[in-house]
């Protein structure tokens, strides 16, 4: 497969396949470490050479129309409001003059090192095997000590229960501290960081107040995460906030309806491209790889009308 992908990439066939799909693409990024800045620059430069890079507003306009356009366009999205989006990603975007959307959680800014999910992604491996088995037993999972399974279970339980589990894990990992590498990957931007980006280039979207999984919230909690997030961002940044990203992609019909009452558009983590007529509050994305050949393969194989992710 690697050889085939290399040959197709070198021949330019993968690019032509993606271009001929006439389907728009929203690329999804998370953390970009500083040692990957050059890779990101090369990747975005390659994308901008072969495709039009547009802001989320343009994607919303295109999906809202009944008929598709004659060419595909790309939007760049970066989830979680990580500090490396300001220190690594933004300088690349500014150099190439490419628009992008940063989805951030205002309730965590300058109050937490990172989102709860990234924190426990780092903490859970430090638990003893006995502790992991106890948590997995509570989750209904047997014969495993997989930390990923614990984290996924935590995303499904009510907020109050999840916070109790968080406190329990913190108690059982008393010596925990983020490593330098973890901070570079998962630390959040400050308000100063957000105010320091060019508003003509960087669109700020909401990722909820505190990165909660929305389907497990009650109506009051849901309203605070959606409406509260937009209000805080608009007040602190002094500009409209119209776009939304579901934390971990978690949503259901009720959540989508609630989001539609507050935001112009919303993106998921469901893999795929978008076309005219797609629901603007359940937009698919393609997870971006900094490996240029791999990304070109994803774009060629996941943007056709019968794509399978």
Keywords:
alpha/beta; 2 domains; single chain; 13% strand; 309 residues; 8 strands; TIM Barrel
How are the SSEs ordered, and which strands pair?
Blueprint: H1 2-11, H2 13-20, E1 25-29, H3 37-50, E2 52-53, H4 56-64, E3 73-79, H5 83-96, E4 100-104, H6 116-123, H7 129-138, H8 147-154, H9 159-172, H10 180-186, H11 191-195, E5 202-206, H12 219-237, E6 243-245, H13 253-260, E7 265-271, E8 283-287, H14 292-301
Parallel strand pairs: 1-3, 1-8, 2-3, 3-4, 4-5, 6-7, 7-8
Overall description:
The protein has two domains: 226 residues, Glycoside hydrolase/deacetylase (TIM Barrel, Alpha-Beta Barrel), CATH 3.20.20.370; 57 residues. The chain is 47% helix and 13% strand. The longest helix is centred in the C-terminal third of the chain and has 19 residues. The mean pLDDT is 91. Strands 1, 2, 3, 4, 5, 6, 7 and 8 form an eight-stranded parallel β-sheet that branches. α13 links the parallel β6 and β7. It has 14 helices and eight strands. With 309 residues, the chain is an alpha/beta fold. The two termini are 16 Å apart.
* Uncertain parts: none
Shape: globular
User: What's the average pLDDT?
Assistant: 91
**What is the third-level CATH name, the topology of the largest domain?**
TIM Barrel
**Distinct helical segment count:** 14
CATH architecture of the largest domain: Alpha-Beta Barrel
Structural Rg = 20 Å
The top-level CATH class of the largest domain is Alpha Beta
Task: Tell me the strand percentage band.
Answer: 5-15%
Class computed from helices, strands and strand pairing: alpha/beta
**N- to C-terminal separation?**
16 Å
**Helical percentage:** 40-55%
Number of domain units: 2
What can be said about the biggest beta sheet?
Answer: 8 strands, parallel
CATH superfamily assignment of the largest domain?
A: Glycoside hydrolase/deacetylase
- Structure summary, number of beta strands: 8
Listing every helix as H and every strand as E from the N terminus to the C terminus, the arrangement reads: HHEHEHEHEHHHHHHEHEHEEH
């Amino acid at each position: 497969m690697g050889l085939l992908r290399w040959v197709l990439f070198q021949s330019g066939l993968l690019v032509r396949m993606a271009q001929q799909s006439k389907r728009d693409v929203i690329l999804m990024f998370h953390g970009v470490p500083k040692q990957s800045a050059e890779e990101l620059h090369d990747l975005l430069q390659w994308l901008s050479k072969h495709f039009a890079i547009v802001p989320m507003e343009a994607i919303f306009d295109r999906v809202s129309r009944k008929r598709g356009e004659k060419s595909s366009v790309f939007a760049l999205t970066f989830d979680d409001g990580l500090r490396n989006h300001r220190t690594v990603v933004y300088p690349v975007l500014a150099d190439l003059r490419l628009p992008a959307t940063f989805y951030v959680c205002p309730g965590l800014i300058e109050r937490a090192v990172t989102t709860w999910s990234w924190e426990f992604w780092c903490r859970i491996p430090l638990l003893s095997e006995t502790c992991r088995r106890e948590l997995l037993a509570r989750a209904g999972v047997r014969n495993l000590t997989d930390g990923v399974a614990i984290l996924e279970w935590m995303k499904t339980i009510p907020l109050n229960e999840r916070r109790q589990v968080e406190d329990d894990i913190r108690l059982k990992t008393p010596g925990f501290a983020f490593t330098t590498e973890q901070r570079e990957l998962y630390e959040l931007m400050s308000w100063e960081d957000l105010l320091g980006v060019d508003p003509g280039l960087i669109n700020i979207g909401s990722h909820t107040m505190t990165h909660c999984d929305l389907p497990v919230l009650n109506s009051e909690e849901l309203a605070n995460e959606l409406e509260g997030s937009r209000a805080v961002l608009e007040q602190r940044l002094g500009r409209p906030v119209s776009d939304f990203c579901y934390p971990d992609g978690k949503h259901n019909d009720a959540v989508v309806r609630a989001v539609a009452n507050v935001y112009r558009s919303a993106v998921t983590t469901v893999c795929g491209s978008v076309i005219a007529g797609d629901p603007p509050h359940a937009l698919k994305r393609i997870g971006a790889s900094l490996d240029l050949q791999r990304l070109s393969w994803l774009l060629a194989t996941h943007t056709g009308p019968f794509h399978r992710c």
